[in-house]
Amino acid sequence: MEVGTHPATALLIGGLAAAVLRGRFASLALIIAPLFGLGYVASLDVGTSSTIHLFGYEILGVVVDQQAKLFGYLFHIAALVAGIYSFHLRDPWQVSMSLLYAATAVGVAFAGDMLSLFLWWEGLAITSVFQIWGRRTKQAEEAGFRYLFFHVGSGLLLLAGILVRYHGEGADALSLAPLTTALEGGDLGALLILLAIGIKAAFPGLHVWLKDGYAEATHSGPVWLCAFTTKCAVCMLARLFPGAEVLITIGGVMAMFPIFYAVIENDLRRVLCYSKINQIGFMVVGIGIGTELAIDGAIAHAFTHVIYKGLLFMSMGAVLFRTGEIRGSHLGGLYKSMPWTTGFCIVGAASISAFPLFSGFVSKSIIITEAARNGHLLVWLCLLFASAGVFHHAGIKIPFFAFFAHDSGLRPKEAPINMLIAMGISSFLCIFLGCNPQWLYDMLPNGAAGYHPYDATHVITQIEILLFSALAFTLLNLWGKYPPELPSVNLDADWIYRKMGRGFLAFGESFWNGLNDRAHAFFVGSMTDRVCLFLKKGHVYTMKALYQPFCKAGLLVQDGSKGENHFAKRTALGLHPVGWTALFCMLFFLGFLLLVFT
Amino acid sequence: MSAHPPKNRKPKEQPRWLDKPENIRKVIRGFYALCVLIIVADLIFSLGWHKHAALAEDSSLHAVETLPAFYGIYGFLACVGLVYFSKLMRGWKGKNILMREEDYWEK
Question: N or C, which end of chain A is more exposed by having fewer CB within 10 Å?
Fold first, then answer.
């Protein structure tokens, strides 16, 4: 059965409208487009698809399955909330690109085959960078280029992988069937595709664009950015690599290393970025485990994550918007003048820490339970560690250092009403999902197979692990052992390629500029001088050399050395007695005639 | 007019509840009480009712995981370890390892 219009159409039209309209009307598109899109996705039936014919190929443009529908809902809700949050923006680039970005994400979720996936994948990269460039500072510009470097690279790797597989297997390779067996069999194409998705999912080593770019974005940028790129990568991982063993290891590492960075990071939005990598690690582990419940858990976690991460970024964006400051060392005591923002931030923090009754609890616990149930002991321990760690840096550190801690003296106004409404909607969803998990579970591809998060064991053990993490934080602070917030940057994996890049630039500069200087000094500096000199003086010397023998032989009269100088001067000026010129002309002419007639 | 500087028009800020140290101490003491409460609840639950373990019976960590307060102790130790390792990541004995000044990349 055919699907009528592409699900992303509403957002696409909204984006184009926002580019053309101005002022409040452009911002209205931010709200109307996602609402229409949401309604349309709700009307789609599972199992339908649509094809388009391009250049003689049949491309499966849209395939509607339960996972696609869920991500469709998610992206439209995220776009709506982010749109309300960004309502006050008057920059047409940012507003229209936000909607187009959301549209490309919906495109990826509903993509039916590799070719349409590639088109939307590239679209993701190009539209998202404007959220970073929108800040219009030099750091943002450079961070945006580094971001593009990674994301366009991801697109190229995806294309390379598709082509390698097409070359190997023909048209079958273009379907979105799972590639797990191919990957484990060492297929190069599958590996390239995994790398491509890995860049967008922030695999360790490939993650630096996230902590770099999002922290340099505008105050509303990360609310958009966090919702789409990485979730599209998770969506594709769930489709293409379910049950791949390597993902368990990768996810475990991803869940562990960022929490260390998050504890010592000063820029609070960068802390949230590291926290994001940690949470995506949970999802990757879930996909790696591969059982139906684990993949359901990963997708459920993606759903709840978008909402509470958006909420956290919104509260930090509000702080940045009102104070111009986002470094923990320079903030504190803001609860006195921004109570609502504080409250919403605490709801987000409770959600990310998986407090019972909040949304994180109903999704994260699935993954952890499945890890334990399937015998992945080390990963289970790592995930527990990561859970405790997440509460530490995102659940406690973010609200504490921004809103409480030492009083910074700043008394910013409360966040503007549109931001408060957006944060309120997200908070409501966090609590709603936390209290009604079945509503979310019913939408999952496998219905979460009868999982019940609210049994006494889970609740008690979860509260226990959280309370004791908080105890550790409290005691370490009271004893003065906790690392203070210091204005600093921490070196991450990007040190390698940034230093290399600068080294390459410096080497190139010194080499080519040195060569240029040498060539200049030689050709322009000395050679031209010498040629000039030769042209000026050369014939004088030649004439003198010819003259000398005649003088010595006594054939010509000269008045001592004065005559020689006189002669040299005359020659330099080109003054010769006419008679000599006539004589030599005649001699040459006679010689020429002799040559011709003999 | 007179050479006096203008009077500070802003009203003096009211001290908030959390500004007083004894209130902070109350909060922290309440928090300690919560921790004890949850351990007691855990103990009652493991001994009285059956707490179903996450790990399978034949798993090597099963015995440890079913201990009451395992999760609490694990969480506490994990966080302490986390904080100490993070401090180490910053620098060792005054020498910076990963920490740099704020404008490191702009120089």
Answer: C
Average the pLDDT over A458-479 and give the result.
90
B30, part of any domain: yes
Per-residue model confidence (pLDDT) at position A468: 92
- Residue A51, classed as helix, strand or coil, is strand
- The reply to whether B7 falls in a domain is no
Are B76 and B103 contained in the same domain?
Answer: yes
Q: Is B38 an 8 Å CB contact of chain A?
A: yes
**Contact (Cβ atoms closer than 8 angstroms) between residue A329 and residue A489:** no
CB pairs under 8 A between A and B: 148
The reply to whether B2 falls in a domain is no
Show the domain range for B96: 69-107
User: What are the tens digits of pLDDT across the range B11-65?
Assistant: 667 777 878 888 888 999 999 999 999 888 888 888 877 667 777 667 777 777 7
Q: Would residue B80 count as lying in a domain?
A: yes
Domain co-membership, B104 together with B78: yes
Encoded tokens for B78: 């994990």
Q: How far apart are CA A82 and CA A72, in angstroms?
A: 15
Distances (CA, A) of A125 to A145, A296, A426: 11, 27, 26
Which chain B residues touch A482 with a CB distance below 8 Å? 83
Q: Which of the two residues, A477 and A555, has the higher pLDDT score?
A: A477
Query: What predicted TM-score, i.e. pTM, was given to this entire model?
Result: 0.86
Contacts of A264 in chain B (CB under 8 A): 86-87, 89-90, 98-99
Per mean pLDDT, which range of A151-165, A174-188, A251-265 is the poorest?
A174-188
List the structure tokens of A169.
Answer: 């297997």
Residue A555, pLDDT score: 63
Tell me, what's the pLDDT at A561? Answer: 58
Closest CA to A132 of A213, A231, A30: A213
The answer to whether residue B95 neighbours chain A at the CB level (below 8 Å) is: no
Q: Decide if B63 touches A, using CB distance below 8 A.
A: no
